[in-house]
Design a protein that fits this description.
The chain has nine helices and ten strands. The protein is an alpha/beta fold. It has one domain: Rossmann fold (3-Layer(aba) Sandwich). The strands form two sheets. Strands 3-2-1-4-5-8-9-10 form an eight-stranded mixed β-sheet, sandwiched between helices. The protein has a two-stranded antiparallel ribbon with strand order 6-7. The radius of gyration is 16 Å and the shape is globular.
């Protein structure tokens, strides 16, 4: 199984860490205070889930997932250029300025995307954008929705996208639910989808949803 480093130990990072560890991967959850552990909720997960600072998580993972706040991720990950060289970086974040109520407001990078800027700043890293168009609970439980959800994938490297699609399968995503949009520039489309999310949340609360493609 794969060694996976996850940067960010909020709800998104913890959710992904538990599910990937339960699927058999060795996961290092990088947090600001690595000694403050989060209890694993499934039998056998604890032995495959460890905690470290974010630089260590980036260095030890064969695949690294960015689950840090998108607004500050570019500077944070650029500082990890050496640790991320030669690896796949899966970016699941959205870079936005908060509205007055704390929900996502304007995009930080209109006309571009965080994923594109990460790829430009990390030329020796293969960046893949995915899982940023849904409530975080859907990332690891897509089958709980009433309709088939979509996980959009963007990236320049076909093999990296194939590898990431395999990880999505471990998270419960069926192949028919995974939509490869093309190169990394297509991430600006899915990152812009975040602008619809606060309106959904204000009307319906934090109920599971995904911005999906229906055929």
């Amino acid at each position: 199984m794969t060694s996976i480093g996850i940067l960010g130990a909020g709800r998104v990072g913890q959710n992904l860490a538990r599910k990937l560890a339960a699927a058999g991967h060795h996961v290092v959850l990088g947090r600001r205070r690595p000694q403050e552990k989060t209890a694993a909720s499934a039998v056998g997960v604890e032995s495959r889930l460890s905690f470290a600072d974010q630089r260590t998580a980036a260095r030890t993972g064969d695949i690294v997932i960015n689950a840090t706040p998108g607004g500050s991720a570019l500077e944070r990950l650029t500082d990890l250029r050496t640790e991320l060289a030669g690896k796949i970086l899966v970016d699941v974040s959205n870079a936005t300025h908060d509205a007055d109520d704390g929900l996502p407001g304007d995009l930080c990078y209109p006309g571009s995307s965080l994923a594109e800027l990460l790829q430009a700043a990390l030329p020796d890293t293969r960046v893949v954008k995915t899982l940023n168009t849904m409530l975080f609970t859907v990332m690891t439980a897509p089958g709980d929705l009433d309709a088939s959800p979509t996980a959009y994938v963007s990236g320049n490297d076909k093999q990296a996208k194939k590898t990431v699609s395999g990880l999505l399968g471990d998270l419960g995503w069926q192949p028919a639910w995974i939509e490869d949009l093309g190169d990394i520039t297509t991430a600006r489309a899915t990152e812009a989808m975040i602008l619809v999310v606060p309106h959904i949340l204000r009307r319906h609360g934090f109920h599971p949803f995904a911005v999906s493609l229906t055929r």
